Amino acid sequence: MVYDATYPLGTSDFAAIMSEAQNSGADSFIAFSYPPGSFGMTKTAQTMGYNPKVFYISVGGAFPIYPGVADGKAEGVMAIGGVDADSPAIQAYFERHAAFVGNPPDSWASAITYASLEMLEQAVERVGLDHEALAGELSTGTFDTVVGDVTLEDNQLRDLWWVGQWQGGAFRAVNPADKQGAAAPIVPKPEW
């Protein structure tokens, strides 16, 4: 690591941080940011012509509006999350979501939230509404969901996509690389 900085929530001018990152000589840029920061850093990097081999932002990168924020130049940008964009279940979910809401879902938390509701539905079908039985079923059962088969570990979903990347107009999961449905990452990221 050659540069490490923080910024206060609400920051809108990222020129100094991005300039320091660009001048550091690092071949990767990683920001653990929320959407306003993710979007601001993207716009600033584009304005500066900052093109590291890896450009990773956190929350906001998987949003369907991100390619517009990046002026149509999202290809190769990485962020938290991702989906198996070739999965028929994910494709059907995206179509239903867009038809109902009017916009596509994000490619991270939306499918996980929907999967949790599918789990609850299946658990109720199996054991009814008794709270103790329902909690037990959710803790130990295996559920067929939009993100695949889900079994909780210590009441947590741990089999998640950690890194996704914009590839060909979709935010595709790339890590864990050995998970079924993972796309090979594009490195270096194409220039803005």
TrEMBL record:
InterPro entries xref list: BCAA_transport, Leu-bd, Peripla_BP_I
Recorded superkingdom: Bacteria
Protein's UniProt keywords contain Lipid biosynthesis: no
UniProt keyword NAD, yes or no: no
Residues annotated as domain Leucine-binding protein: 3-169
Pfam family name, one: Peripla_BP_6
Signal peptide annotation: none
Protein's GO biological process: amino acid transport
Record key words, sorted: Amino-acid transport, Signal, Transport
UniProt family annotation: Belongs to the leucine-binding protein family.
Protein name stated in the entry: ABC transporter substrate-binding protein
Organism encoding this protein: Ponticoccus litoralis
